[in-house]
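The instructor's notes for this session suggest beginning with a concrete chain rather than abstract definitions. Hand out the sequence below and ask the class to guess, before any prediction is shown, which regions might be ordered.
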Amino acid sequence: MQFARTSIYLTLLCALTAGAGCGFGTSAQRGSVSGTVTWNGTPIDEGIIEFVMAGDNQGGHESRVAAPIKAGQYLFEELEGPLVGPNRVEIGARRKTGVVVEGRVPGPKSPGPSATSGGAPEKVELTRQFIPEQYNAKSTLSADVAGGDNQFDFHLTSGNKTK
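After discussion, reveal the predicted structure:
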């Protein structure tokens, strides 16, 4: 009888803690996030946005998710979105430099003297990161993600940083 009563209490306790998001086998809650990203008032053509939750909020493990920026827009669906809570935001984008170099595109090896090169020669235009590190490698941007739908717009400038 004592065993049955203890089992009932344990089952009830597990059910209650699972409903609160603290039970065994529950995963961290994520949010759906969308928004716009501009550089000096102009939408960023192509880039990447990352939401990073610090390790101290996840038992020492950093959580990082990334999405493409296209025509100034980005979207994280809830299942692949950032974890709920405070996140550091990193934004990167590259521009062509006008410098063209000859390189080799990886591909099937062709017979002949260039067989060890791994591909055909091709002219490639170099690019460079134009977003300052205060918005990516040393980002000061942040977003507090909630469960459900979120919208965060980032209006970056070459002068003072804004969110």
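Then share the key points. The two ends are 61 Å apart (CA to CA). The longest helix spans residues 2-19.
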